[in-house]
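Pilot study result, target chain (94 residues):
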Amino acid sequence: DVKNRQVKAKQVTFHRKKNIQYYEISAKSNYNFEKPFLYLARKLAGDHNLHFVESPPSAPPEVHIDLAAQQQQEAELVAAASQPLLDDDDDTFE
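Predicted structure:
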């Protein structure tokens, strides 16, 4: 998934402008697929210690992510998150 990425880390800014939680996920490799659901469940329950019990096995990943490529992508996200935001007319979603 990382090799065929369509949206680059520096392009992912909407969540920062709107102060929304964001997770990098991949359905093809099962990477972080549960994190948005856990975040939402914790918010709805008002319990930040809530955790999921063991889930049933998911389908095997269609692709395997290279650990080095994954770490590089995460580093790019951290670097992109530290950059100042430009006003690019996202106000249409308010």
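One observation from the pilot: The longest helix spans residues 67-81. A full batch analysis is planned for the follow-on phase.
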